[in-house]
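Summary for the steering committee. One of the milestones for this cycle was to obtain a three-dimensional model of the protein with glyoxylic acid bound, which we needed before selecting residues for the alanine scan. The sequence and ligand used are listed below.
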Amino acid sequence: MDSIGVLMPVPMSPYLEQELEKRFNLLKLWTVPQKTQFLKDHSGSIRAVVGNAGNGADAELIETLPKLEIVSSFSVGIDKVDLNKCREKGIRVTNTPDVLTDDVADLAIGLALAVLRRLCESDRYVRSGQWKKGDYKLTTKFTGKTVGILGLGRIGKAVAKRAEAFSCPISYHSRTEKPELKYKYYPCVVELASNCDILVVVCALTEETRHIINREVIDALGPKGVLINIGRGPHVDEPELVSALLEGRLGGAGLDVYENEPEVPEQLFELENVVLLPHVGSDTVQTDTAMADLVIGNLEAHFSNKPLLTPVV
Ligand SMILES: O=CC(=O)O
């Protein structure tokens, strides 16, 4: 398979790069200065693109690559891949579900604990020597808080399971009710937000879910409510979130994702009720390896005419 051109637009996992290089002709787009010319020069050999959560394959890239057969994404979310264009051109698409579920769900709980118990702020309190001048203030209990989950797919269910271990009543909103689950379903996001203490956003980003967290939802969550976003930045109307936090209309936020990554609204930097992570939901050594193996497994299956391991298209 070493003559097959595999295009990687941005750096991701060193292990993935190394394993792809063993098997394919890996073309690292970020290392070349003249990208457009490079793509033209290699358009006859590039048969696969390996994208990720930030850089997938948009219509323009797909049109540039006439021999493209498969986009194997090093991510579970495939909102950066033009799925319609892929369908139209018969290009297969794969992602990395399941292997990252635990890490992302763990992080959602970590963020909720970090916001309510002020873990980052109290860490700073110790490091800056302030403890010597007096004890840190009281924080807010997590156990027993009502957790609302927006999107009860694989990761949403894993968040629910973990939150249940903290005796948290669980409610959710998703496209359809899942009557087999014992959690309370709300057909409308505003209603879910009005009836929970912590709202966890974990649905896929689509045209329907873009800015699903708007001013009305934020106000429904209210000054004691906490928003946790481990989905995608564009799920949230970010300027509305920032003003709600600045004005005290929202109790706190734990964010792993933002509208224009890696840009993060600087007004949030001063707020102690906000915990900011750099989109690291699945970034553990173990999951990085498992995701990379899945990307490679999908490519090998495709180029050996075997069924794809995790097909999306
Ligand atoms: O954001 C990460 C992913 O989609 O895997």
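Key point for the committee: The mean pLDDT is 98.
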